[in-house]
Every structure is written in C-alpha cells, then in structure tokens.
Specification:
Immunoglobulin-like, five-stranded mixed beta sheet, mainly beta, 2 domains
Length: 198
C-alpha cells in the first residue's frame, strides 16, 4: 500500500506497506524486499522497511518481492512540494448590481496562486467557502463550485454568482489548502471580501 494513492511531494520520505499471501489469500510471515525501478524519481533507502525518498518530479515505480514471488509494479507520482499560497487577484472588490433584481450578477474571478519547489503545483485541491453578511438565505453561490483544482500554472479561481433578491452588505470568500500530510499550507486561508453597490 502506498501513501495518498501513490502521490508524494518532493522531500517527503514515505514508507509503503506489503503483505505476503498464501494460495488461500491469508497473510503469512515472510521477508519482503523493496526495489525502485526508476531511481531517477524515487530511491529506496532501506530495502527491508521500504522507506523511500523522492528524487525528482515525475513518476516512479516500486517493486516488492518475497523469495521469487514479485508484486506488480506500484506507481508513485512525485509532485513539486507546495511552499505557500497567496492571492493573485484583489482581495477586496465591489460589485455593481443591476437595478433589475430579476437578473443574476457575476463577480470578477477570485484567484489564488501557489508557490512550489521543483515545479508548478498543478492539480492540487483548493477549497473555497462563502459567507454572506448579514447572514441570510442563499443569495450567492460559487462558480464553478466550492472545490477547484489548480491549473498548470498553479492557480485556481472562483466567481461569486449573486442571485436576484435582497442583497447582503458583503460576501467573504476564503480559499484554503492542505498538504498531502494534512498540514495547513502557509498562507492559507486567503480571504476575499466582495461588497455590493446597488
């Protein structure tokens, strides 16, 4: 078994796990040995424990064996290490809402950018949350959704869609990110404030 679906960041040493099974599918005691098939990307530091270290961004494969019985290669994707996140668009803005309250209004893009070591941090999950002040009904939603992945440049954006009806004074949108190990990314959360002008 590999950590987080086989995804690791640069500098994150990890330890895979394996079990030897008999013909009935039951676990049996056996010595297992780990090997990297792609040492340019991942390097096994201890063949008996499987402790492995990323070497460069890319895809590597791990193989485990016991005696002459070999596993299928297990893919490990090494990603650039996330360093921090920050706003890449104004964090405070105003939205002129049409006097016709039967029409939706859309804000400019609220964008964050990530800084990564060893490459761009694409495909990372960013969670956006929206709060209206004063609190009320569902007067606004996030487009395209509240969870967005970063693009090839390491950026992610949402827009606020304001629905017809009574307007709040403002909407606060927060963007937050975590590393694969669950730790909060420095700079997270990023806060955007959107005020309304009728």
């Amino acid at each position: 078994m590999l950590p987080d679906s086989g995804r690791v960041e640069m500098t994150d040493t990890f330890r895979p796990h394996a079990r030897a099974l008999n013909g009935f599918g039951d676990s049996v005691a056996a010595l297992v040995v780990w090997t990297s098939l792609d040492t340019a990307f991942i390097q096994v530091l201890d063949s008996l424990t499987g402790v492995t270290e990323p070497e460069s961004v890319g895809t590597g494969r791990l193989l485990v064996r016991t005696g002459r019985l070999f596993s299928n290669p297990q893919t490990v994707v090494v990603l650039a290490r996330l360093d921090s996140m920050a706003a890449a668009s104004p964090t405070r803005d105003t939205l002129d809402v049409t006097p016709d309250t039967t029409v939706d209004s859309l804000s400019d893009a609220l964008t964050i950018e990530t800084i990564a070591l060893g490459g761009a941090a694409s495909g990372r999950r960013v969670i956006f949350a929206l709060t209206t002040y004063p609190a009320g009904g569902p007067v606004a939603t996030l487009l395209p959704r509240d969870t967005v992945t970063t693009d090839l440049t390491g950026r992610a954006s949402v827009q606020v869609l304001v629905h017809p009806g009574s307007l709040p004074d403002s909407v606060v949108v927060t963007a937050s990110m975590r590393r694969f190990d669950g730790s909060i990314l420095p700079g997270s959360p990023v806060t955007f404030v959107l005020e309304f002008l009728p």
